[in-house]
Design goal:
- This protein has a three-stranded antiparallel β-sheet, with no helix packed on it.
- The protein is built from three helices and three strands; from the N terminus they run H-H-H-E-E-E.
- The chain is of the alpha+beta class.
- Helices cover 47% and strands 30% of the residues.
- Helix 2 packs across helix 3.
- The protein starts with a helix and ends with a strand.
- Strand 1 and strand 2 form a beta hairpin.
């Protein structure tokens, strides 16, 4: 899971580029402030986030990604 934590910071810019290519090349829209805003919002919603959760057994670090939650590191 350590490799996953190293990749996660690069997912947001990668998602912005991918959505930009889809909107500009596939759908044929021109780059303007609205399409850029849509790219950034979609990438923000779909990018994973890390959260530290306090439980009875101790602190857990969770990765939350749209509909997916997974315990990454359990610290005691």
């Amino acid at each position: 899971m350590k490799i996953l934590k190293k990749i996660v910071p690069f997912l947001f810019p990668l998602l912005v580029i991918i959505f930009g290519l889809i909107i500009y090349k596939v759908l044929g829209y021109e780059p303007n402030s609205y399409t850029i805003l849509i790219n950034v919002i979609l990438a923000y919603v779909l990018s994973p986030r890390f959260k530290i959760v306090n439980k009875q057994s101790g602190e857990e670090e969770q990765m939350k990604w749209l509909f997916f939650k997974k315990v990454i590191n359990k610290e005691q």
